[in-house]
Amino acid sequence: MPFLTPVTLRGDLVELRPLATSDHDALVHAATDGDVWRLPYTRVPGPEQMAAEIARRLALAERGEMLPFTTVRLGGPGGGPDGEAVIGMTTCCNVDATHRRLEIGYTWNAVSAQRSGTNTESKLLLLGHAFEALGCIAVELRTDLRNVRSQAAIERLGAQRDGVLRHHAVMPDGYVRDTVVYSITAPEWPVVRDGLRARLDRAAAGSTE
């Protein structure tokens, strides 16, 4: 089943590589860039939790429940000036092969990589894989109701807000969070795809959004 097959997705700015245990040290370095793991409304693993989180994601991948990626910023034209660098993690998760649906989630990026176009291209690569390679009929994106910045970013992708799952998950600090659910359907994908490409073109031309 193609849903279960690890794959490398490469663009101009980023490459999404299958997560590996050897990524541990680079991921710890990325997580400490801005201390994103300290944010209360995220599930970014801290340095001491990174090994366990990598093992958890790989175990889910082994069971066919997740496709975990390491996000690598590319060097050269359009990429990072200092060569390749690991900047975070992302996944295809909550995979439902029968109904051809999945969620893009468990995503985090180093602070220095934010608003650099890398997240936009990562989403373009993941959505393209979901709709064009896997034949998905819909892709979900979810975030904490408190995370207004993440909601705005998801809406800029062109996703539609489906609603709020109240008291949906218990966070590591014990907070019971409400989860906002967004989705993009297959008929909507061409417009979303063109919008993401246009954003990347504007960024490459030096325009600000």
UniProtKB/TrEMBL annotation:
<protein>
    <submittedName>
        <fullName>N-acetylglutamate synthase related protein</fullName>
    </submittedName>
</protein>
<dbReference type="Pfam" id="PF13302">
    <property type="entry name" value="Acetyltransf_3"/>
</dbReference>
<dbReference type="InterPro" id="IPR016181">
    <property type="entry name" value="Acyl_CoA_acyltransferase"/>
</dbReference>
<feature type="domain" description="N-acetyltransferase">
    <location>
        <begin position="14"/>
        <end position="187"/>
    </location>
</feature>
<dbReference type="InterPro" id="IPR000182">
    <property type="entry name" value="GNAT_dom"/>
</dbReference>
<dbReference type="GO" id="GO:0016747">
    <property type="term" value="F:acyltransferase activity, transferring groups other than amino-acyl groups"/>
</dbReference>
